[in-house]
Amino acid sequence: MNNQYLVEYLNYLRYVAQYSKHTIEAYHSDLLIYLENRDTLNETQEGLREFLRAFSNAHEMSSTARMMSSIRKFYEFLQVSRYIDYNPTDFLSISQKKNKLPHYLTLKEIEQLVSFETIEPDDYLDLAIIELLYSCGLRVSELCELKTSNIDTNEMIIKVLGKGEKERIVPFSSRALNALENYYTHSKSKWMKKLVNFVFINSKSKPLSRQSVYNRIISRAKQVGLQKHVTPHMLRHSFASSLINEGADLRSVQELLGHKDISTTQIYTHLDKKKQKEMYDRFHPGKKIEKGDKK
Q: What is the domain extent for residue 190?
């Protein structure tokens, strides 16, 4: 997207404010998502609220808070630079948080997402991305930075470099392995014009960006008719939700997700009502007595 105001803002962060490379990349990534098909200088509070509402439904609280911060700082820059007189972010509170859990995909929706009537090279890439995100619960940045040397196909494990340069080992499924092998055979081998260490590349032999992965998943979801706003994080959330719903230990899920604090992992304990009822009937002593089992 060619947005002169975004370019000026990024240059300001780089050369005047002297923010770190990673911080600038985070702001850049957020603003690319926000500014897509938007009128930068004529944003309204209503339009901004609508965007944040949709974004918060598909992302965790920390991602929503960061997005709000990115947008707020961008418009502060535009106002100080006298590109705008009215700041649409004035209504945003720093303490404003999402009190609603992000959505996740059911197994049926996952199957719908990876169902292809005909397969093109780009489809193999999409399938490998989706299967790996769902199989391993990776962050989109972790997926984009994944190197071929980090994948052990014999042991079926991936070495992931997460936040704070913290390394973790995550197993992956045979479905994900099959999707990766098909992607290597039918797409990557044809696209790779030079030696590329990254697992995921595009047809120009360049590593995928976070924005590219985000766009591909949204496009894929629309293509198969899913009504939800599907994002890379929703697949990560679906991974964790599936494990919790099948009885996985919270500490194990914490390790697999790379969460520093288990309180972050606890947002994934939203078992559906049917599952909760089944667990209650199975384990509560009172229900056992009702059934005549007094042991």
A: 107-268
Q: Say whether 186 is catalytic.
A: no
- Active-site entry in 98, 210, 216, 236: 236
Q: Indicate the pTM of the whole model.
A: 0.64
pLDDT tens readout for residues 123-162: 999 999 999 999 999 999 999 999 999 999 999 999 998 8
Q: Residue type for 285, please?
A: P
User: Dihedral (C-alpha) 203, 205, 210, 216: value to the nearest 10 degrees?
Assistant: 10
Q: Domain total for the chain?
A: 2
- 139, 188, 210, 220: which is the annotated catalytic residue? 139
Note whether 117 and 155 are same-domain residues. Answer: yes
Instruction: Answer yes or no: is 169 within a domain.
Output: yes
